[in-house]
Structure formats: C-alpha cells, structure tokens
TrEMBL record:
Transmembrane segments annotated in the record for this chain: 12-39, 71-92, 104-124, 150-173, 202-221, 258-279
Topology within the bilayer: Multi-pass membrane protein
Family to which this protein belongs: Belongs to the binding-protein-dependent transport system permease family.
Residues of the ABC transmembrane type-1 domain: 67-278
Organism of provenance: Paenibacillus alvei
Subcellular location: Cell membrane
Alphabetical list of InterPro entries matching this protein: MetI-like, MetI-like_sf, UgpAE/MalFG_permease
UniProt name for this protein: ABC transporter, permease protein
Major localization listed first in the record, in broad terms: membrane
Keyword Membrane: yes
Taxonomic lineage from the root: Bacteria, Bacillati, Bacillota, Bacilli, Bacillales
Cellular-component GO terms for this entry: plasma membrane
Classification via Pfam families: BPD_transp_1 (PF00528)
Amino acid sequence: MSKLLRNEMAVAALFLSPSLIGFTIFYLIPFIIGVLYSFQDSPGNGSFVGFHNYESLLESSSFRKAAANTFLFTSVCVPLIVALSLLFAHLLNQRLFIRNWLQTAFVLPLVVPVASIVMMWQIVFDWNGTVNEWLQSLHWGRVDWMKSDWAIVVLAVVYIWKNIGYNIILFLAGMRNIPKEYYETAVIEGAGKFHQWTHITLVYLTPTMFFVVLMSIINSFKVFRETYLIAGDYPHDQIYLLQHYMNNMFLSLDIQKLTAAAVVMVGGILIFVSSMLVIERRFRNFME
C-alpha cells in the first residue's frame, strides 16, 4: 500500500470518526443493551428468561394490532408514494411552464418544521377545520377525521405530502442521467412513448427505484411524530402503530416488552432491506 493511499485513508478515517463515535455511543451500544434487556425479567441485574418476553409480546393484542396497522400502512402507502413520485417526476421532466413553481411546492414540505406541519393539518382536519367547513357548505355531515376510520387516510395524506418531494428529486436525477441517445434511437426504430417509458425509463430507473422504496419504508416509520402530536398517546385503532405501542411501554416502564418490540421491528426491517439489496444486486448484474 502506497504512502499516499495510507494518508488518504487516514484522512478519511479522521473525518468519519466523529460520526462513527456518535453512532456507536448513542445508537449501537443502547441497541445492544436493549437486546440484552429483552431476554431478562427486569433491566439491570435481571434474570435470564429466554424468549419469555417475546412470547408475551406476541400474545399481546395491542402489539398484534400495532404490528398489523404498521404493516398495512407501509404496504399501502409505500407503493402509492413511489407511483405518485414517479408520475410527478415524469411531468416535471417535461417542459411545463409552471415546472419551477411545482418543484418548489414539492420540495417545500421537506424544510417545514414538524410543529408547523401538525398545526397545518390540525387546521385542515379539525372538527371545525377547513375540510369540514367545506363539507358543511355542501350540506354534508362533518367528519371526526382523527377518531374514525378516516384517520388512516389522514395519516397517509400527511405521510405522502411530507415525503413525496424527496422521492421526486431522486427520480428526476435518475431521469436526467439517462442518455438521450437511447430515446433518439427508439424513435428512429419506431417505438412509441409508452414503449420508451417501459423499456428505457423504467429499466434505467430501477436502481433509483430500489433506493426510493427503501427510503419510503424508513420514512413510513417516522410518521409517528406527526401522528403522536395530532392524536396523542392512544389514537384511533386504525392508526395505532408499533411506535405508539413502544412509546406506551416506555411510559409504563415495561422495558422488557419495549426492547422486545424494538428488536422484532428492527429484525423485520433488516430482513426486508436485505432482500431488497439482494434483488437489486441481481438486477444490476443482469443489466451488466
């Protein structure tokens, strides 16, 4: 190994060390401690109880409801936000006269503080809010959005509105990196717009799409902040998510169920992400 390469690696390690130290202290070590707690009957000097905490967790109706709601929310909202992001990115890639305004409108939610987001959606979906006033003007009944089956729809709208801009940026970058020669060749060979879209755009956007799906899944777990601020500790059954369950276990000091639920959730995410990475790697090898 040359001296120059060693110096470059030393500089890289120096710049990475603050982030690695912070990640280790504030994330990795607490998670390892949490895994150990999940196999004990009490934190600290508790006795080893094996998988008893996990068995109790799976027997809990609250956990099963939270897990089912989280899975439903993610499985519905992630494909929806990916499809909408791809559609809007395609539109913004065209020469629209309002393209710059639309780009700003989609990106703006990324920089809006969570407190402002919550206040805005409370104004929109409150009992005396904008939507209910509009429904009242049409002589329809008011809807208690956050305390009815419509709560999951409100949560999906907030999630998509908050995160769609980031996905659009990624898709736009991917579209603009596709060589124009491919489209010109397709036109010469008589391929239509739909054929170009399916055989060129979608194919070359596949690596970007994998990344967008992963980020959308991660962001779907971050929607707890908005839900908690809008609906509180115990929201409607439709939007009672895993994060609500773990937060309530923390407030009741049931550390064993809290850590067991966290380990189960992280394990599920890791399995899914690993599967996505394997599929993406195989697709990339196929393309090469």
